[in-house]
Amino acid sequence: MSTQTLSRPATRGVLDDLLSERRPDAASSRLLDEALQRHKREGLELAVRARWIALSAIGGLLIYLGPDWHVLYYIGILVLFGLIGWAQSRIGTYGRSRLEMLLIFADLALLTFTLVVPNPFRQEVWPLAIQFRFDGILYYFVFLAVAALSCSWRTILTIGTWTVGLWALGVAWVIWQPVRFPELTVAVMNALPRNPELIAFLDPNSVVLPSRVQDIIIFAIVASILALVTWRSDRLLRLQAGLERERANLGRYFSPNVVEVLALNDTPLKQVRSQNVAVLFVDIVGFTAYADQKEPAVVIQTLRAFLALMEAQVFEHGGTLDKYLGDGLMATFGTPASGSQDATSALLCGKAMLRAMRDWNHTRQARGEAPMHVGVGIHYGPVVTGDIGASRLEFAVIGGTVNLASRLESLTRAKGVALIASDDLIRRVIEENASHRSALNGLIEQTPESIKGVKAPVGYWSLTASVA
Known about the structure:
By secondary structure, the chain is α+β, with helices and mostly antiparallel strands.
């Protein structure tokens, strides 16, 4: 018999929403944004450390290449780069930030100025075009690589676009300047009268435009590829964040160990199988009368507090929250995978629920509120599990075991007890704990009872709330 045929008002199954495709709600989007923001923050902190390491290495290289006082000019500029990187790490956020973009542009503009404009402290005066013979374009790649640690693919493309534009402006600015050393060009032409291409390459006053175009194209290609890599990384991050969100959603319904099974198990849940499980039902006694006397907001608040207490016990004892049933819930022990202590865990969970209710009632009475009482029914036996539905799936636990557990819970009212466990469950508890039967403390064996829908009388054990 399906659990949906019970008389209680059943809500949707636990896995109904979890296993169906749906758009993320506002809370899910917020969690995703928070995860992406953490990723950006970690990337920014890593980027500023990588930048300082790279700048230190470049500083050492500059001292090696030009061991003179004029190199201090470039060391000072390296310090500025370091400060700009630190500022970026302080204000950077996931998404668009104009101030962050402004700092990135300042980075690139300062680098362009440094590479195109000669060192004012150098004693020798060279043609402006000589600045391009030092392959300064390579330093943009360092900044691009560092930026990839913390930026989105759009920012990488922006950096690529700005770099290409600034470098092209730098080249154009040098070309437009008047030739200050024409005699050098004449000297090269006299030395190589029949090699016009070589003259163009060696002329100190020439920017060697084909090489500069090559610089721009290669940098644009690398920036585009790196943006693609960053885009793919962002997609993987979003996918990972989505998986973490799904695992968190699973954690709302399953105990941590069951979440691990679901996360690591490659076997689809829709696979129909038969297995023995312990089924537990619990709900509030007389809740309908209580709800009729209270404001709806008070009723909902009470229900939330009660269900939170009950589900906490289910998870603490390794159970699976199958569904909420109005003023109660159904839990299973042994799904999706059977364990060696399923029956014992179910019985201990039922006892823990009664103790939790006792503590909650102390709190309620201290506030002048009436105590609440519950009934718990537990049975152990065979069920059939698997997904049901087409476009929307529900992980169903069906069979006579479910129906009997519900009937036992209803029987607690007629017998004036808080918990009833079937003989089948008790026998299984004894099998699971052959040398230690403390889980049975307080339980009293009763005369078998005729249960509606069951042919033979059912043996059971009862427990009062005071001895739980």
